[in-house]
TrEMBL record, chain A:
<feature type="transmembrane region" description="Helical">
    <location>
        <begin position="34"/>
        <end position="55"/>
    </location>
</feature>
<dbReference type="GO" id="GO:0005783">
    <property type="term" value="C:endoplasmic reticulum"/>
</dbReference>
<dbReference type="GO" id="GO:0005886">
    <property type="term" value="C:plasma membrane"/>
</dbReference>
<dbReference type="GO" id="GO:0045332">
    <property type="term" value="P:phospholipid translocation"/>
</dbReference>
<keyword id="KW-0472">Membrane</keyword>
<comment type="similarity">
    <text>Belongs to the CDC50/LEM3 family.</text>
</comment>
<dbReference type="GO" id="GO:0005794">
    <property type="term" value="C:Golgi apparatus"/>
</dbReference>
<dbReference type="InterPro" id="IPR005045">
    <property type="entry name" value="CDC50/LEM3_fam"/>
</dbReference>
<protein>
    <recommendedName>
        <fullName>Cell cycle control protein</fullName>
    </recommendedName>
</protein>
From TrEMBL, chain B:
<feature type="binding site">
    <location>
        <position position="408"/>
    </location>
    <ligand>
        <name>ATP</name>
    </ligand>
</feature>
<keyword id="KW-0472">Membrane</keyword>
<feature type="binding site">
    <location>
        <position position="678"/>
    </location>
    <ligand>
        <name>ATP</name>
    </ligand>
</feature>
<dbReference type="InterPro" id="IPR008250">
    <property type="entry name" value="ATPase_P-typ_transduc_dom_A_sf"/>
</dbReference>
<dbReference type="GO" id="GO:0016887">
    <property type="term" value="F:ATP hydrolysis activity"/>
</dbReference>
<feature type="binding site">
    <location>
        <position position="503"/>
    </location>
    <ligand>
        <name>ATP</name>
    </ligand>
</feature>
<dbReference type="InterPro" id="IPR059000">
    <property type="entry name" value="ATPase_P-type_domA"/>
</dbReference>
<keyword id="KW-1278">Translocase</keyword>
<feature type="transmembrane region" description="Helical">
    <location>
        <begin position="288"/>
        <end position="311"/>
    </location>
</feature>
Length: 342, 1149
């Protein structure tokens, strides 16, 4: 080592905070002293939030009616026979007080697996964005609803084919007269779905129908896509709001989908107390798989529909926090200096 | 390398003879049936790949790893059958992992190629067709005569033909081969030594026969046949004639040599050893956990498949009208469908095996190991050596050590020898001020007077100064006149080089005492005795070897008398001594040993003329033998080294290294058993053991020594075992010697182990290198399978270092063999404490948490997916989008754990080092015990259930969560679960983190932020190349819902609450000693600043302690001060208190 006096400390490691593992660091310790006040604070805050959420949720009114027609005495029993077509049944209900608006009208399906994998992928987003190339050759994932009699199906796939096709009309019964409650079908689908994700094919000579030339409708549909809404020409093709709502597959087998909002005319403030009757055009078969159909009227708060879960969860966790902080306080008082009694 | 050898063998089966014949300058005999042998060329290939085979070979090597292979299979399954996720989801991470590894390996190989090319293209001079030709190193063929100039390295293994010196010697240094820095003299045979010019060499007709290449650097057997004037002269060739590739020519202008081993067959190349892979305990547990998880995976997949078919048995679920099957699906065979469903589930759940685990662990180990090399505390200022990490695979094993097996010389001691005492002819002498003073007398000679030495004394001194293999280096040795020109001057430039420090110390001592060794010039040795020069002719050297444990020289004295001087261990010289003060010397040797001195006994033998002739003849025969040369040599040596006249003994002191005692004590407090294994006498060993604190004076020392038979040994063992049982309060120490040990191990392994386990210190003396390894193996394979660590500095420790779980080399004076074969190496024994107690502790905690956390986060990840199957008819619908599946492990959750595993410090390093007992907290792989594994796995499941069912209940009634009454779809549900999961998993790690550097903050909060930013970006664009646009705006819609925010907060917090509560309660009810010291640390506020000045100024521990105590005094009540005093710093209390403290420590840990 005497040979190289000059490079005596050439190998000396750098003396920096990083190499010596002594970077400045915050070293928190989960001791009772910090956790107990923290828990109390969080607990109190949670209880507060919980109460607020619970009250908010409590104020939301919900009216739910099953119209599957399983029981013989239910109004839609007559329609459950698969032979009948365009069967209309009436569902009557009474509101004892004002159902505050804006009222949202949902239909719901139970035991219906929109989240089935093969079902979920059975669509062609290319078609739905109006790409006519995909009109001629639908995606393979659409099978078995890819071609019908050698002609491409547009929109292809199981989701589109199983499009929910019951329709509803609501009447208020005033002195035996039926007064139709106007439904608002706009804005029930996501804004981005309507404006960006889904597009109709470019109209040929101003006609949407011609853009669909060479394709056939999905087998279960009574009418082709460009005639979905006979009343409103703008609500046709892939930009039909009901269709958009349906195409967003639900996460769980019991789901609701928004059908209409009641925001207009005399009912902008809500549905006044009184008798109502709902005309249901019963098309959609669910009994084969033990499914259920229902309609739901609900108003919403800023946090959405009626959802007790959040409020309760906050209350429970909040009070648990407080209780646990008490327990810890006792423990802390008893074993304050654990190193002294060993 | 192997390929080359194999090639060589395959192509050349007829030449698998034991010897190879090399015709010098490739002059083959004109007549006769000569078949040219095929030799490898001189190209060195250390690289693994070529441009052509890199891709296939590298891929093959990578897919040999189980994990990579598993993911390859998954990927192939995804390609083959219709699976829920696209092949990209597993292909991309796999590709990423493979690419990163391939780039790393490719780069390393490129460097090797570069080095190879440099070596192979180096210019060399070769004698060809009568002239000196410059060529490239790779063109050297076996048989070529190569010229090497001063300070050049040898391009191949050469047999020395001639040098510029007439006697045909040259000096070389083999520092780059074995690290020995001393100069070694190599010889040419006299017949070739005269051929000093190219033309003479051209005329040389000689054949070298030698053994086939082998890796042993110190073994070479061959002979050279020189044809001179039609007469064939045969000369033996040994290692002293062979110049190894890689060694360097010193002090010699030029040499000529004939290449015998070239390229990959040279000894250096054969020593490129692929070290055996050591696997750490953590890695083993990791593999066990992987298998358990594989089990969980298979169970989930099978369960799902069965349930799916159970469900589908009812027709209405099998094919409802809205979800018709295709013709193909209806018609495919039931069994095929079943299998493909099973595989699909396997693919769906495959993420439960964390793909990035291996990459992260490797990165952590690789990057983390830098901290060892960087540590200033492991840097040795005097020798300018920092710690060296040879394998980063074992970092965490440093935290698990239970047994330390340490060498003594050079490891516990400095290996800096200092001559102290000697015994001549039965009288003890001490060296005082450069004079030999008989025992009992004081240094009362008047200054300047030359003490009169008796004949025995002089003979003894001469014997010591002649019987060795020391070389001399003069600083300006260019003058060919050689060493003797300095003989009369002041020889200040003279420096001794010796392979053994004992020899060097002895020769230097003799110089001080007046008998100066001036160097050997060829076969002459020159000594100056009190100004009078004498020349001895060196006839033979009987080299030292570990079995004989002695070495001899045969000299012709100026008087013409032929004398043998022998020097060696007392046990291997005394039995052969016939005359002299044998008994007195033996007593003196034992006394020296008791003082901790290393002893050597010196003897001589005078040969009569006839005797010498016989000796000479037999030696020559043995040396020229081609077969069994070693055995025959040993036989001849035994014949020569007998009937000795004992001259005396020497005692050389080996100083203890600093802080050895503290280190051993710290290791003991840490629950580590320290064994000292040494080749020394047991008296020496015990005294060193006592002085270094390995044995305490209060310890009851048990002895198992000099057992000659099995029965005796068994009885003694039984007695010892009884004594231990009777007396279990006091600590026991055991001393075993090599012979007894081999008896004990042969028959009574269990009993011996039993005794050893109950001894707090064990000392093995008189150990042969292989015995050291055997002891280590015995413990390694004992039923408890403790983790062993071996530490040593010399070549004799290599076997033990390689055998132990962790091998540590000390960069000492005995070459670098130990360092090269070790896993870690540093300069001083005391560094072991920091390496184990601090680095080992940190690495273990880091990697253990890393492994557990990885499994945890993947359980969290995939269990919701499994639960979702119950709600989607087991249709293998994924809960999360493919991109999320792919990126979860490689982007969203990878960095925080990596940074954690690099920087986490549970306790301040200071505290860890001062409180060795903390090491017990992590012993026995406790953080990876089944209990903790279960905790993490169950926690994973628990969290996964909360994520999933929390989100499920929130959405379960399927009310709208948005203020505009719109509904969410399945992807929003999955994204909600995923968001909650990413946050929870990241925060869970945050809860585990005790040491928050800016990097931890950056990656923890950065990861969450990155997830949000990425999701916004990913969901904000219609991706043109994606098949489906499922995720479009899903994330924004989710975040636009107030309920979702509230749900995320409550789910995340309710996941973490139980954990927080558990941690707090455990801390207060059942604190581990680690946690206690965290408290102490916090109270003392040992900050970064403090530690900085402590370490950088190299302040003594005492002063540090003093400051610490001051701080404690000023902040805590007196009662606690006393406690933390004894707790904190056992180093500075006296022995007795340590003894009483240790049981206390062990009970409350």
């Amino acid at each position: 080592m005497k040979k190289e006096e000059t490079a005596e400390t050439a190998n000396r490691p750098d003396n920096t905070a990083f190499t010596q593992q002594r970077l400045p660091a915050w070293q928190p310790m989960l001791s009772a002293g910090i956790v107990i006040p923290g828990f109390v604070l969080i607990g109190v805050a949670f209880i507060g939030i919980g109460v607020a959420l619970f009250v908010t949720s409590k104020n939301i009114q919900v009216l739910e009616r099953d119209y599957t027609g399983v029981e013989k005495n239910s109004p839609c029993f007559k329609c459950t026979n698969s032979d009948t077509t365009n069967c209309v049944c009436n569902l009557n209900f009474t509101l004892s007080k004002l159902f505050e608006g804006p009222v949202f009208f949902y239909y719901g399906l139970s035991n219906y697996y929109q989240n089935y994998r093969k079902y979920g992928v059975s669509r062609d987003d290319g078609q739905l964005s109006g790409d006519t190339d995909n009109f001629k050759t639908p995606s393979d994932s659409c099978a078995p609803y890819e071609y019908s009699q050698k002609k491409p199906i547009v929109p292809c796939g199981s989701i589109a084919n199983s499009f929910f096709n019951d329709s509803f009309r609501l009447f208020q019964v005033i002195n035996g007269n039926r007064k139709q409650v106007p439904f608002d079908g706009k804005g029930i689908a996501w804004w981005t779905d309507y404006n960006i994700k889904f597009h109709n094919p470019t109209k040929v000579n101003g006609s949407l129908q011609k853009a669909f030339a060479g394709t056939v409708k999905p087998p279960n549909w009574p009418r082709p896509a460009y005639e979905l809404d006979p009343q409103d020409p703008a609500n046709n093709g892939f930009l039909n709001q009901d269709f958009l709502v349906w195409m967003r597959a639900a996460a769980l087998p019991d789901f609701r989908k928004l059908y209409r909002r009641i925001t207009e005319g005399d009912y902008a403030k809500g549905l006044p107390a009184g008798n109502y009757t709902l005309d249901i055009t019963y098309n959609y078969p669910v009994l084969s798989f033990d499914g259920r159909k229902k309609v739901v009227f609900s108003n919403v708060s800023w946090m959405g529909g009626k959802n007790q879960f959040l409020g309760i969860a906050y209350l429970v966790i909040g009070s648990l926090c407080v209780v646990m902080s008490l327990v810890m306080l006792i423990v802390y008082a008893k074993f304050k200096f654990p190193e002294d009694d060993s | 390398m192997l390929r080359w050898i194999r090639q060589q063998l395959d192509f050349d089966p007829p030449h698998q003879s034991d010897t190879r014949t090399v015709y010098i300058a490739n002059r083959f005999p004109q007549h006769g049936h000569y078949v040219p042998q095929k030799f490898a060329d001189n190209r060195i290939i250390s690289s693994k790949y070529t441009v052509w085979n890199f891709v296939p070979k590298n891929l093959f090597e990578q897919f040999r790893r189980i994990a990579n292979f598993y993911f390859l299979i998954i990927f192939l399954v995804q390609l083959m059958i219709d699976t829920p996720t696209s092949p990209v989801t597993s292909g991309l991470p796999l590709f990423f992992v493979i690419t990163v590894t391939a780039i790393k390996q490719g780069y390393e190989d490129w460097l090797r190629h570069k080095a190879d090319n440099e070596v192979n293209g180096a210019p060399v001079f070769v004698v060809r067709s009568g002239s000196l030709v410059q060529t490239r190193s790779k063109n050297i063929r076996v048989g070529d005569i190569v010229r090497v100039a001063k300070d050049e390295t040898f391009p191949a293994d050469l047999v020395l033909l001639s040098s510029d010196r007439t006697e045909g010697t040259c000096h070389i240094t083999t520092a780059s081969l074995d690290g020995e820095t001393n100069l070694k003299t190599h010889f040419a045979v006299p017949e070739t030594a005269v051929s000093q010019s190219v033309s003479q060499l051209e005329a040389l007709l000689a054949v070298v026969e030698c053994q086939q290449p082998e890796a042993d650097l110190y073994r070479f057997v061959g002979r050279i046949t020189v044809t001179q004037l039609g007469e064939e002269i045969v000369r033996p060739l040994g290692p002293e004639n062979l110049l190894l590739r890689g060694a360097r020519l010193k002090n010699t202008k030029e040499i000529f040599g004939v290449a015998v081993y070239t390229g990959m067959e040279s000894k250096m190349a054969l020593n490129y050893k692929c070290k055996s892979q050591k696997r750490s305990a953590v890695e083993k547990s990791m593999n066990t956990f992987l298998i358990i998880y594989l089990g969980i995976l298979l169970f989930e997949a099978i369960l799902s498949t069965i349930l799916k078919y159970a469900w589908q048995a009812e027709g209405q679920w099998n094919e409802p009208f809205y979800n018709q099957k295709t013709e193909q699906e209806r018609n495919s065979s039931q069994i095929l469908k079943f299998i493909s469903d099973f595989l699909a589930f396997l693919v769906l759940y495959n993420f439960i095996i964390p793909i990035s685990l291996y990459v992260t662990v490797e990165m952590q180990k690789f990057l983390g190991s830098f901290f060892i090399g960087w540590d200033l505390d492991l840097y040795h200022e005097e020798s300018d050596q920092k710690a060296q990490v040879n394998t980063s695979d074992l970092n965490e094993e440093l935290g698990q050590v239970e047994y330390v097996f340490t060498d003594k010389t050079g490891t516990l001691t400095e290996n800096e020898m200092q001559f102290r005492e000697c015994s001549i002819n039965g009288i003890k002498y001490q060296e005082i001020n450069g004079k030999l003073v008989p025992e009992g007398m004081t240094d009362d000679f008047p200054d300047g007077s030359v003490p009169q030495l008796s004949r025995e004394e002089e003979l003894f001194l001469k014997a010591v100064s002649l019987c060795h293999t020391v070389q001399i280096s003069y600083d300006q040795t260019d003058s060919p006149a050689g060493p003797f020109s300095h003989a009369n001057g002041i020889s200040i430039q003279m420096e001794y080089y010796a392979s053994s420090p004992d020899e060097k110390a002895l020769v230097e001592a003799m110089k001080r005492l007046g008998v100066t060794f001036l160097g050997n010039n060829g076969e002459k040795m020159e000594v100056k005795t009190f100004g009078r020069s004498e020349t001895y002719e060196l006839l033979h050297v009987l080299e030292f070897d570990a079995n004989r444990r002695r070495m001899s020289v045969i000299l012709q004295a100026p008087s013409g008398e032929k004398i043998l001087f022998t020097k060696g261990a007392e046990s291997s010289v005394l039995p052969y001594a016939k005359s002299g003060e044998i008994e007195k010397t033996r007593v003196h040797v034992d006394e020296f040993a008791l003082k901790g001195l290393r002893t050597l006994v010196v003897a001589c033998r005078h040969f009569s003329v006839q005797e010498y002739e016989e000796v000479d003849r037999r030696l020559h025969e043995a040396r020229t033998a081609l077969q069994q040369r070693e055995e025959r040599l040993a036989e001849v040596f035994a014949f020569i080294e007998r009937d000795l006249h004992l001259l005396g003994a020497t005692g050389v002191e080996d100083k203890l290294q600093e802080k050895v005692q503290e280190t051993i004590e710290a290791l003991r407090l840490a629950g580590i058993k320290v064994w000292v294994l040494t080749g020394d006498k047991h008296e020496t060993a015990i005294s060193v053991s006592l002085s270094c604190g390995h044995f305490h004076r209060t310890m009851n020392i048990l002895e198992l020594l000099q057992q000659r038979s099995d029965n005796e040994c068994a009885e003694q063992l039984g007695r010892l075992a009884r004594r231990i049982k009777e007396d279990h309060v006091i600590q026991h120490g055991l001393v075993v010697d090599g012979a007894s040990l081999s008896l004990a191990l042969r028959e009574h392994e269990k009993l011996f182990m039993e005794v050893c386990r109950n001894c707090s210190a064990v000392l093995c003396c008189r150990m042969a290198p292989l015995q050291k390894a055997k002891v280590v193996r015995l413990f390694k394979t004992s039923p408890e399978k403790p983790i062993t660590l071996a530490i040593g500095d010399g070549a004799n420790d290599v076997s033990m270092i390689q055998e132990a779980h962790v091998g540590i080399g000390i960069m000492g004076k005995e070459g670098r063999q130990a360092v090269r074969n070790s896993d870690y190496a540093f300069a001083r024994f005391k560094f072991l404490a920091k390496l184990l107690l601090v680095h080992g502790h940190f690495y273990y905690i880091r990697i253990a948490t890393l492994v557990q956390y990885f499994f945890y986060k993947n359980v969290c990840f995939i269990t919701p997916q499994f639960l979702y199957q119950f709600f989607c008819l087991f249709s293998q619908q994924t809960l999360y989008d493919s991109v999320y599946l792919t990126l979860y492990n490689i982007c969203f959750t990878s960095l925080p754990i990596l940074v954690y595993s690099l920087f986490e410090q549970l306790v301040h390093p200071h505290v860890l080092q001062n409180k060795p007992a903390l090491y017990r907290d992590i012993s026995k792989n406790s953080l990876l015990s089944f209990k903790t594994f279960l905790y993490w796995t169950l926690l994973g499941f628990f969290h996964a259930f909360i994520f999933f069912f929390g989100s499920y209940i929130l959405m379960g009634e399927d009310t709208s969560l948005m203020g505009n009454g719109q509904m969410f779809g399945n992807w929003t549900f999955g994204t909600l679960v995923f968001t909650v999961m990413v946050i929870t998993v990241t925060l869970k790690l945050a809860l585990e983190t005790h040491f928050w550097t800016w990097m931890n903050h950056f990656v923890t909060w950065g990861s969450i932020a990155f997830y949000f930013i990425f999701s916004l970006f990913y969901g904000g664009i219609i991706w043109p190349f994606l098949h489906t646009q499922d995720m479009y705006f899903v994330f924004v819609q989710l975040l636009s819902s107030g309920s979702a925010w509230f749900a995320i907060i409550i789910i995340v917090l309710s996941c973490l609450f139980p954990d927080v509560i558990k941690k707090v309660l455990y801390r207060h009810l059942q604190p581990t000693s680690t946690q206690k010291s965290q408290v102490i640390e916090a109270q003392q506020g040992v900050g970064c600043l403090d530690s900085m000045c402590c370490f950088s100024e190299g302040e003594s521990g005492g002063a540090r302690l003093g400051r610490l105590v001051d701080r404690v005094m000023s902040r805590c009540d007196p009662a606690r001060v006393r406690r933390s005093w004894s707790d904190l710093d056992p180093f500075y209390s006296n022995d007795r208190s340590i003894l009483t403290l240790s049981p206390v420590e062990s009970t409350h840990c």
